Request: fold
Amino acid sequence: MTIAHSPHSLVSLSKIPEITLSFWIIKILSTTVGETGADYLAVNAGWGQGITRAVMGALLCAILALQLGSRRLRLWLYWLAVVLVSIVGTQITDLLTDGLGVSLYVSTALFSVALTAIFAIWYAKERTLSIHTIVTRRRELFYWAAILCTFALGTAAGDLATEAAGLGFTHGAVIFGALIAGTWLLFRAGVNPVATFWIAYVLTRPFGAALGDLLTQARTYGGLGLGAQWTSALFLAAIAGMVATVEFQTRSHGATSQTR
Reply:
């Protein structure tokens, strides 16, 4: 039996946050933490790449299990999953580049093909890629697979642009920021909202990575020299503050609606 859901019921069933300005700000902060956090754990904290990948991968599996098992949207759980996906996505690209010697040109192409394949299978099975319709377990699995691939792709593309192509961190952040702004203008002009959402989602990863490198890398390498530890702590605090604010506003709005 097929169950029809109204737009309102779809929103209530979805465990994806509403796509607002705060969503994109937290997303960019999360991508930056993925870059700086992975560097801090692997290098500054002395964990090394292998231990960092193992621990973060295990944490991601545990948090995703909680996210998939939850019956409603829990903002802190969702964004914790995104931060961990960002770190693991960075580690996957670093493993290919630094551990296995795979060219950034090749890894960027591979992740592009992988993401296209996920979208193709997702659409063939569900006939939609809209995040507003992610109300079943299978759609959630497609969503998180696509999210992980966008982070890995964004890391590879960002490193390709800022390092291999020699753009540098500042120019990389400016260029990817401009591409995000251009995507927003296309959305405002009436271009398909699903396509523009996913394009922007991919672009925020290299933008956040370039921003993270700009803040953390030494001045001799074109950065501001703030260090991975302080940048990660600052951005994590900002994420926590924004998630708490959105949670408070959501609950206040719900309480106000019930009293009317």
